[in-house]
Each structure stands twice: as structure tokens, then as C-alpha cells.
Amino acid sequence: MNRRCPICRKPTDSETHADFPFCSERCRLLDLGNWASEKYVISEPAYDESMFEGLDPEAASSETDDQE
Q1: Block mean pLDDT (10 aa), the chain, length 68
Q2: What one-character DSSP code corresponds to residue 16?
Q3: pTM
């Protein structure tokens, strides 16, 4: 699969680059640093909070206790 590195935009290939989708370990580590320093943010919740309306919080905690 051919793509461009998300950091430096150089062409990269999944078959030849071990750090795919990055072109190098340097770009992979720069991306990790961006996440660690919170330069990247998720702009909206991954779930809709209305999905949890009407659920019993006690039932949810007892289910996790059963799994342990």
C-alpha cells in the first residue's frame, strides 16, 4: 500500500517500510511525541452520551465486578 508519511509527506510503502505509515522511525517518534504533548485532540466524543441515558449505574458496576 502506497501512502504519504503523515509527518513529512514523503512517499512510503507498507511492503518496504517497517515504520509504515511513517517513512522512518524519526517520523514515528515525532508523531508519538505529538500525542504525548497533547498537540492532537479528538474534536468530538467517540460515543453519544444519550446512549447512556436511562441506564442504571449500579447494574453497570455489578457487571464489571462479576467479570473480575
Answers
A1: 92 89 94 92 77 71 54
A2: T
A3: 0.57
